[in-house]
Design goal:
By secondary structure, the chain is mostly helical. Among the domains are: about 150-170 and about 340-495, no CATH class; about 225-330, no CATH class. The protein is built from 20 helices and no strands.
Length: about 500
């Protein structure tokens, strides 16, 4: 029976890359078609959600066809399809343009893209319902162990959505958070080998890559306005683009460290260039620091310092040679207020004290203008800090649950790393690969922690950043389980096999 499962796993891993290459090509084609194609392609209210659903359903059919042709068992097929839903949820916010004024949102009037995006979430939820039939036991695990922190926080957001200034707006975003919790819970329950952790990272990498490509395609759509963004930067959201590029850098470094690929190195380099061109200071610093941490914790100090110096040198060269970037840097004068963030925080603290326990309602920070009319808060859609965002929206109850997620991530990663140095029969676990994955997840956490201190990367809407943050807890749960159980079926690396063979073949000193 064990051999049969192994054969199925091998049969599935072999065509997986071939199955995902068309998916990647399809996403890149759609990204450029939406930005460089005719206007009606991206403006028709009925056409855009159909394109989005095609991006979900076409790869879904391809994966089912490959699974049936290869005789893949239901468990592996379920995991692959769930990863596809995860990828789709990552990119959905970038695909739909939901920009609308605060007054309309407050009154419950949303743009057509907002309804279209929720419609695609409902379709994804229905697909997930069918997939859950193959593994329903994961639902009970969502209320136990470390995962209970995600479930508890999600439920607290549901309660807080009821007394939010715009309940319909809050409930819409809560539905995505609920869906993300289910998808991540199913993925976590399917992690039984280190290759499953890698597969999740591959799915996330394709999602981050799509977001960056779509944003860059938007900026390149009109080269004359390429640097007409905020302060003369790249014509895209600099904070979001630099943050996503930072996550893309870390994930590409993790996967390349496990198995070196030239194109992954190119993706990492392109992500650094994107961060610099976007010139989002928070994302750039978070990405550079976390990438350095990734190398240093592997005791590759020279590589870490080389990467950090390389990023700094490349940034200096690009800023010095690209006139719009140089003009932005030379005229930047908002450093003392962290680009206005300190003013937003100062305005939010008195309001937090008014409702310290339960907060003002889920995502209510978007509507702070109702009580602070005429202040800087009028134009701030959030509090630019994940902890303050949670404290304002969900109160101390939500903040405690969010800190529980942080603590569970660190505890799981620490115990997984500690277990690698304790012999407990883990001969079948590739210790080197496990260490890379553990360190990589910690680097992702460091990136989002730094980024979340100046943006709502966690605790607010279920954006790609919050999804990435929650996924670290799911991966940490899987890594802790794999490193602590002696019966893990992950094949040993060649280096580990040689080490164990020499250990048992060489005579001991006592026998001589």
């Amino acid at each position: 029976m064990i051999r049969s499962q192994s054969m199925h796993g091998t049969a599935w891993r072999r065509p997986r890359l071939k199955a995902f290459l068309p998916v990647a090509a399809w996403t890149v084609f759609v990204a450029f078609a939406l930005r460089f194609g005719p206007g009606w392609l991206a403006s028709e209210a009925s056409l855009k959600p159909m394109i989005a659903l095609a991006m979900l359903l076409i790869p879904l059919c391809a994966i089912l066809a490959v699974a049936k042709a290869r005789g893949v068992d239901a468990q592996h097929a379920t995991f692959a399809l769930t990863l596809l839903i995860w990828w789709f949820l990552l990119i959905s916010d970038e695909f739909f343009n939901r920009i609308s004024d605060v007054q309309s949102t407050y009154e419950g009037q949303f743009s057509g893209d907002a309804y279209s995006e929720v419609f695609t979430w409902v379709i994804a939820f229905l697909i997930l319902g069918f997939l859950s039939l193959a593994r329903p036991e994961y639902l009970s695990k969502m209320f136990s162990g470390s995962y209970k922190w995600i479930t508890s926080f999600m439920l607290s957001c549901l309660v807080a959505a009821v007394y939010s200034p715009s309940p319909l707006y809050a409930l819409g975003w809560w539905f995505k958070l609920f869906l993300v919790s289910l998808v991540l819970g199913l993925c976590t329950s399917c992690i039984e080998k280190l290759s499953d952790v890698r597969a999740f990272l591959w799915s996330s990498l394709w999602g981050f890559l799509f977001i960056c490509v779509l944003a860059l395609a938007d900026a390149l759509a009109d080269p004359t306005n390429l640097f007409q963004g905020v302060g003369g930067r790249l014509n895209a959201d600099p904070v979001v683009l630099s943050g996503i590029a930072g996550l893309l850098l870390i994930v590409s470094l993790i996967l390349n460290a496990i198995r070196g690929r030239l194109w992954l190195k190119l993706v990492g380099f392109a992500s650094v260039v994107t961060m610099i061109f976007a010139l989002g200071k928070t994302g750039l610093i978070a990405g550079a620091v976390s990438a350095t941490v990734f190398f240093v914790l592997q005791k590759k100090i020279a590589s870490g310092l080389a990467l950090l110096l390389g990023v700094v040198l490349l940034a200096v060269i690009l800023v010095a040679t690209v006139t719009p970037l140089a003009n932005y840097v030379s005229t930047y004068r908002a450093g003392s207020t962290l680009t206005g963030r300190t003013e937003v925080w100062a305005g939010a603290i008195p309001l937090i004290k008014q409702q310290p326990l339960l907060g003002h309602g889920y995502l209510s920070s978007k509507f702070m203008w109702t009580t602070r009319r005429g202040s800087v808060d009028d134009v701030a859609p959030h509090l630019h800090n994940g902890f303050l965002e949670t404290l304002y929206n969900n109160g101390l109850v939500g903040l405690v649950l969010l800190l529980g997620i942080h603590g569970a991530i660190l505890t799981n990663l620490f115990n997984a790393r500690k277990a690698l140095s304790v012999p407990n029969g883990k001969e079948s676990v590739d210790l080197e690969q496990a260490n890379i994955l553990i360190v990589g997840c910690f680097a992702l956490y460091v990136d989002l922690l730094i980024y979340g201190c100046f943006t709502p990367a966690f605790g607010g809407a279920a954006s790609a950043f919050f999804m990435a943050f929650l996924s670290i807890l799911g991966l940490s749960i899987g890594l802790r389980k794999l490193t602590q159980q002696p019966e893990a079926k992950q094949p040993v690396s060649a280096r580990a096999r040689i080490g164990w063979r020499k250990r048992f073949s060489e005579p001991s000193p006592s026998s001589t």
